[in-house]
Amino acid sequence: MKPLQLSPQAERVPLARATTAPPMELGKWALGSMVTGYVLLLIILPIGQLLLTTLEGGWQRFIAALTQPHAWFALQITLGLALIAAVINTVTGTVCAYALVRYPLPGKRVLNALVDLPFAIPTAVSGLMLLMLYGPKSWLGKTFSLYGIEIVYATPGIVLAMIFVTFPFTIRAVQPILQEMGQEMIEAARTMGANRWQVLWHVELPTILPGILAGFTLTFSRALAEFGSVVMVAGNIPFKTQVASVYIYGEVENGDFVGAGAVSIVLLLISFGLLLYQNFWMKRQRFGWWERILARWTRRKERAGELENWDI
Amino acid sequence: MNWRIGISSFTYAWFLLSLLGPIGALLASAVDEGASRLWAELFRPEALFALKLTLLITVIVVVINTVLGILTALLIVRHPFPGVTVLNTIVDLPFAVSPIIAGFMLVLLYGPNSLIGGFAGEMGYKIIFALPGMIVATLFVTFPFMVREVVPALQEVGTYQEQAAQTLGASPWTIFWKVTLPSIRGSVFYGIVLTVARSLGEFGAVLVVSGNLINQTQSATLYVYQAAADFNSAGAYALSLLLCATSIVILVLMESMKKYQEGRQA
Amino acid sequence: MSIEVRNLSKSFVDGHMAVRGVSFELGEGEMTAFLGPSGGGKTTILRMIAGLEKPSGGEIYISGQRVDHLPPQERKIGVVFQNYALFKHMNVFENVAFGLRVQKQRPDVIQARVRELLRRVDLQGLEGRFPDQLSGGQRQRVALARALANEPRLLLLDEPFSAVDAQLRKELRSWVRKLQQDLHITSIFVTHDQQEALEIADRVVVFRQGQLEQIGTPEEIYDSPDTPFVAAFVGEVNRYRTVIKNGVTDLGVLQFPAGNVPEGQEVVVIVRPENVELMPWSAAADIQGIVLATTFLGEFYKVDLELADLVRITAHVPKALGGALREQERVALQIKATKIFNVA
Predict the structure, then answer these.
(1) Model confidence at B18: pLDDT above 70
(2) Domain range for residue C240?
(3) Radius of gyration of chain C (CA)
């Protein structure tokens, strides 16, 4: 190992700087502009064009397109039915997730794998399935129609379709939190003398609440947007089964882009709002508001003297 | 104990009612038609064309979105710039956009009367009501999958392995192929599976941009829709069953991936 | 391979100055310890020498070659990371072979070199294992073998022993020391454990708040610290702040000669506990004290004492003596060595 001279080596520096530093910077720039360009062409410009086309004619035209009876009805019924579907799936999904995590169900692996099936099945096929189950030719459909209940080509069909395609959301949002929570917290609460209900109410529910809310948000926004299964099951009957996405499709086919655009923008605003809420607000809040409600409730009880012997 | 029995039976009942019911109904209706009839339906030229088109779109979309999804994730995690949170949110937007609206927006931007579409038309290229439009629509709805899988994986892996490779003399190119990519390969595979599933099944967005022209722009899901509308139930069942079978294969793949990853962590 | 650092500084994007104008020179074949509390800038300096962090100012020379603008790939250094940063998707053999493969060595050369390295770090037979199938000590040796594969001119180790438990740490550090001496490779390791630094380094560099506090052999650092901080960081001390009055320290009974420190100067006086000697009490002794508490520490007793004028002092005394001391017992003291620092 020969000692090297200091001066000749030092002169190499500008060369090294010239050959190695720029390619790294160049690579970063190339990466940045490639991704930006792609996102621009694929996502941002289309949204911009939608806003431009719809709002070109001024606000009055936008409001008129929105309050047009068909459009207004479609929006209302979509919001209402999506809410019903979301409530049903949030409740059932939470119960199912609880069972899947806490109880040794026979065939648990299979059930767990089945949960994701609605994500994997094309929505048009999901619609066809529901049509086969509840349609006029099926025995279920016939039975219901004996009692005067319409399912297919009516609002119950839409709710069923929404429930089917959003089946996994709540389960998949609650499951990991329950799993991560483990038994320790529950056992700790039990050793402090809490009963089954108190454990559920004060320990388990507050812990999984973020998951339940996330599940609800995702279910609701997906149900709002659903098209394929709904159009198969419910058809396209104005003032009866014409949901917003079906309405938009019809207006696009008719070439009424402003009519389609107005409803689209309202739906997008709702979905984006929920997305932002999901991404920012809820992550920051975590257990916040439920804890506060519980704390207030506990304090009130304390004031009433019910809990006075808890004081140590 | 009652508690447990109640919740467990409810879970079974709910799975049966809302999941297995519809799937069973489709199977039963298909069986009624008879296997030979369904088999024949699969080989109708229109059906074959639709399947081939879906396959073609899926392959192209998977390639493009895998490459760009990984690049986007790399940009977000490894080279954060001011405004990276905005990009991070934009990536999620396709999840929040109804497929119908996605298709509609693409018609507005790339349609024959638009600036870009008009220019392409003059050059002799058709985007909307043609294959490119269907590809772009599918790219749109599947873009978040790869990014969402790879971003957390990159964050978890961290930069120390890459730094170690640097000090051992590896070039950025070698580091990417030999260190970064292998350490996130599980997530990349998962992202591909999700992208494939969504591409095969995409309906709304593709319906709007394709025009649903038989033997031209009719993909498999559009064929199912058309067949059901035309009361060609055998045709609808045949392709539906094929798509379902593919979904189940995909699901099994995903499950085995999960097991593989859990096994590695243990 | 010698290494020289001139006026090196680093400030991060958030404006935090991690390193402020550090200069030093380390000799060939030496094992150097970067010692200091966390946030002292020692890891940042190591990462700048490795090329993983870009200096904000200053120069770095390895064997006289200026390297601060070279990327890590071109510096020919080996780095052992704190968490080892082993390639999780490669087995032990591939981890060690990585640097050689990158250099496009012939397969038989790689084979031979990796075998030789694994033999050196005592890991024969584990070639096919993956990192998550290895113990902490084994992982560290893989990281070491990997860092040595390309025959680096400089070996850098970032807190190399912090991820293993106490018993293993002792074994590993003497083993690493021996390996370093066998290979005669210039090495730097970062640590916040003064015992580790004193035990295996030829030379210790003490950093504090991004500045070089002192550089010297372990003996120099321990016995003649340049600052009260170094004295306190490398061992236990009794520390007193006072002024010089009548040519001695104004500490009641502890009147140490001021030497050439001027009258009225504010000073810090440092006395190491092992330099406090206890003797049977005699009325004639210059310094007398009362035992407040004794604590058994294995090799010796730690004795807390109170002197006249409420001055307190801690002494380390041999077992035989310490065991016999009772609380409130009166003893005589002798201070064998002190160090006086001027307060700026």
Answers:
(1) yes
(2) 236-272+285-342
(3) 25
